[in-house]
């Protein structure tokens, strides 16, 4: 089972999600006007979800400062060949996995607005939810996260999904999105300016497995994530003005 969950966990890295966003953008160029609009909306939703998610997840991890299970419990060694570093709350893999559910839901919502809820819709939503459960299970099994950390990750993911849909439906939702991004940026910058002092036993435990627990977020990651997030929000704002 370990090898299976290692593969599942590795699939939950960002490469898969980037490919989905690029595929949506490419399809929007080659489809007819009506279909292209749907894929542009899908690309906006997915890009916003995963780019904003990096910034929000980073801010929460460095505010909550919750260690991964194997950092503090000698009976729980990391089972992944390349153990995850950093903090554990919320689970970034699980939060990102909710994007697959969001993708399936969006495909249904954008492609079949007038259709009744049938087997195809149920299959799509079940597929997306199964991906979330698989990723969350793999992270717990590999001792990368506790159950509470993956539940928190899923909760943040679904909350972000709801925020993006709300922003999309309301012109004044842009302001709320900006508040969330600026608050996340501020939290990251505060932790960079005031790095956490970690207990020596925690550092020693991590170093046993060749993992470096960073005490503050990487400034480059924070700036890039915020810049891309701001760009997506500006594009959505322009879209609202165009259709006003």
Number of helices: 10
Share of residues in strands: under 5%
Instruction: Provide the domain count.
Output: 1
Distance between the termini: 53 Å
Helix content: over 70%
Give unreliable regions as ranges: none
Count of DSSP E strands? 0
Can you write the helix and strand succession as a string? HHHHHHHHHH
Backbone CA Rg = 19 Å
- Structural class per helix/strand content? mainly alpha
Largest sheet: none
Oligomer: single chain
| Shape estimate | globular
Mean pLDDT, to the nearest integer, reads 86
Keywords for this entry:
mainly alpha, globular, 244 residues
Write the layout of secondary structure elements.
Layout: H1 2-11, H2 14-30, H3 33-64, H4 69-72, H5 92-111, H6 119-141, H7 147-169, H8 173-193, H9 200-208, H10 219-243
Give a concise summary.
With 244 residues, the protein is mainly alpha-helical.
Model description:
- There is one protein chain.
- The protein has 244 residues and is mostly helical.
- The protein has one domain.
- It is 75% helix and 0% strand.
- It starts with a helix and ends with a helix.
């Amino acid at each position: 089972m370990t090898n299976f969950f290692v593969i599942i966990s590795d699939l939950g890295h960002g490469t898969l999600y980037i490919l989905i966003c690029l595929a949506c953008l490419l399809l929007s160029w080659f489809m007819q006007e009506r279909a292209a609009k749907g894929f542009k909306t899908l690309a906006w939703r997915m890009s916003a979800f995963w780019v904003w998610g990096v910034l929000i997840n980073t801010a929460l991890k460095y505010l909550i400062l919750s260690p991964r299970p194997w950092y503090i419990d000698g009976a729980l060694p990391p089972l992944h060949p390349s153990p995850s570093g950093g903090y554990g709350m919320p689970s970034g893999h699980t939060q990102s996995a909710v994007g697959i559910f969001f993708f399936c839901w969006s495909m249904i919502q954008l492609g079949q607005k007038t259709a009744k809820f049938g087997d195809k819709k149920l299959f799509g939503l079940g597929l997306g939810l199964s991906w979330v459960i698989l990723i969350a299970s793999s992270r717990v099994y590999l001792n990368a996260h506790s159950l509470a950390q993956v539940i928190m990750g899923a909760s943040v993911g679904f909350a972000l999904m709801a925020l993006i849909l709300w922003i999309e439906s309301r012109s004044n939702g842009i302001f709320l999105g900006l508040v969330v991004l600026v608050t996340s940026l501020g939290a990251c910058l505060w932790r960079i300016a005031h790095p956490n002092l970690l207990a020596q036993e925690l550092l020693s435990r991590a170093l046993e497995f060749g993992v470096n627990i960073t005490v503050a977020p990487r400034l480059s990651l924070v700036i890039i994530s915020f810049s891309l997030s701001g760009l997506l929000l500006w594009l959505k704002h322009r879209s609202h003005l165009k259709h006003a």
